[in-house]
Description:
Layout: E1 2-3, H1 6-33, H2 45-69, E2 72-83, E3 87-93, E4 101-103, E5 108-109, H3 110-124, E6 129-135, E7 145-148, H4 151-160, H5 171-185, H6 195-203, H7 214-223, E8 229-235, H8 246-255, E9 259-265, H9 273-281, E10 285-289, H10 295-305, E11 310-320, H11 322-343
Parallel strand pairs: 3-6, 3-8, 8-9, 9-10
Antiparallel strand pairs: 1-2, 2-11, 4-5, 6-7
Amino acid sequence: MTFSYSWAIWLCVPLWVVGFAWWLRIQRKRAISYSDERLLASPPKWMIYLWRTGIAAAFCAGIFAIIACARPLGSVTESRLYEEMHRGCLVMDISLSMNTVEDVVTQETRIQVVVKSAKEFAQKRKGDQLCMVPFETGVRLALAVAPTTDTIAFNQALDNLITHVEGNTAMGDGMFFAFSMLLGDILERNERLNISRLQKEIAEVKGGRTEGLAYIDDLVSRNGALTDTFILVLTDGEYNTGIVDPLALLSVLKRFGLKTYILGVGKDFAANERLVSLVKQTGGDVLYAHDANDTPQFLEAINRLQKRKILTEVTRKQIELAPMAMGIALGCALFFLCIWAVLRGGAVFGLFRPKSVPFGTNGLGAPGPRVIQVRRTW
Length: 378
């Protein structure tokens, strides 16, 4: 506990102690000035203890009033457990082959199964910032979703993909725009991502050599690392068109620690060794769901791999204790006044009346001042 005006404690408490002791001494002198204890009826012991308790309450009232004036401040520690937030992007293949019927009974196509599984995956990643990039011959930016924590809006955007299936498989372009979205999400509000420069630097990556990434290096160093960030590609075939080479892009993602997962859907999916090797070097993996209906199981496996940490946030807050101290002071003062009103001179119960004293005597049968005040000192 700290005090805003600590000098009030050092100055006023000693003055109050000295003043209170002086007041008690004066009360004692006044009590015996014109009194003789032999003239008094002895009060009950509980009454004596009650009065002493009132005196103690009066003393405490003054102490707490001084503390309240010094404005005491207390600190409260609060701890909160929360899951670490990840950023991720679902890269959805909406090429024409995704219209293949996978379940003869239900007549569900690959895209329908994948969309349903992706919605379940997004539901399990509540609290994460997710974005979505659909691709076919090119990227369908009109159907894309910027990073958001709104699971409902995200799932509605996934549903829209079912009616927009066409074209070939430009997986590299989809992954590139996913990387752009995640990179742009860490930038300051007044800074814009230079897409053409970003694309140019990635195009210059040859044979896995990533030395010429000055622009990306500068962005990441100024705005923070891309840790706890992942890209999940759901596709039914290898890339066969597009501007961006996914192998070059994977080399860049590996350098910046951005995990990449590729889930191949359908029995026709096959990935070359170089692609699989680069994906695993990013910390991710290539999974094969030869039966599209097994997609939810593989997405659950990816969900477990991309595990979120449980973090603890500890905060300290200062609270004003002056109202509480003043409340205690007023309570003690009220208690003292109640005791004083009841016991003062025995006015209520008539317990402190002197014996019958002849006029002009001191009560002992000898001439002297008459008893004016009779009070026992406690």
